[in-house]
Amino acid sequence: MGEQQHVEVTGGVSGWANGVVSSRRFQGAVLGSIVLGGVIVGLETIPAVHDAVGPLLRAIDMAIIAIFVIEAALKITAAGAKPMRYFGDPWNLFDFAITIVCVLPLDGQFAQVLRLARVARSLRLIKALPRLQLIVGALLRSLPSFGWITLLLFILLYVYSVMGVALFGRNDPERFGTLWSSMLTMFGILTLEGWVDIMRDQMGGIPPADGGEALHRAPIAAPVFFVSFILSGTMVFLNLLVGVIVNSLSEGAAEAAEESAKESAKESAKDAKQARRSPLPSMEAVDGPHQTTIAERLERLEVALDATLAEIRSLRESARGPR
Fold first, then answer.
1. What does pTM read for this prediction?
2. What does residue 77 show for φ and ψ, rounded to 5 degrees?
3. Candidates 3.90.25.10, 3.30.420.10, 3.40.50.740, 1.20.120.350; correct CATH number of 2-128?
């Protein structure tokens, strides 16, 4: 009996905690705390603001940390008899680790760790916003493809860097004198920053420092070299990356829709099973105007049944006749 009572109390507490955590008000409060915490971390980097309202900002930050601690405690309580289910979610582990670091009294050489943890709290917006979480999940799902595309891009960058040393090393030793400098130059060209000026320097040649005319010009090789690199390295690979991300987003959206459909099917099956067990809906499960409508229909049905029974009795009595 005592064990059963303990189970009922535990289930009631976990159900209450689950209701609080699932409520929109609580989720809105957590989301607002995350945004406010990110704003406070940014304001503390401004010396004038920090000197003026530093104690107030620290007090608000402590209140935000308290909200995060309450959130973690409620989520662990909502797990009921299996609190380790809370730590089975990677996002919960991330939230719990940041909360623990913010609570620990870190000073001195560990103060920088505390600052980084407070900044990392803004990343909790990823979990709080489902759409943003879908995008991040798509990016994580694209990492294997990103790796192969990056490897192919590095091979292309290496080949063009070697060609740049061979073609423009004598004309422009500062940019193409060594393989390392040539790779840095070609990587900068990938960003489309100043590549036209670099190409023109190779086309017309760079005059020597002591004066005179440029000796090493490449009026044909330079345009072919740089334009082909721009087309292959920037346009093609950028479209490949965009295609991989879009494909991952489509897969993530399809998986989310499939999970939602499965949950809806489970709920429908559960409702159908309950309907087979009970022909009439439970009044506790219906609220609002629907409850009033069902109650009125039941009253009318009861009145009709009473009238039918009375008519049947009168017919039986008339059929018997006087004795």
1. 0.54
2. -65, -35
3. 1.20.120.350
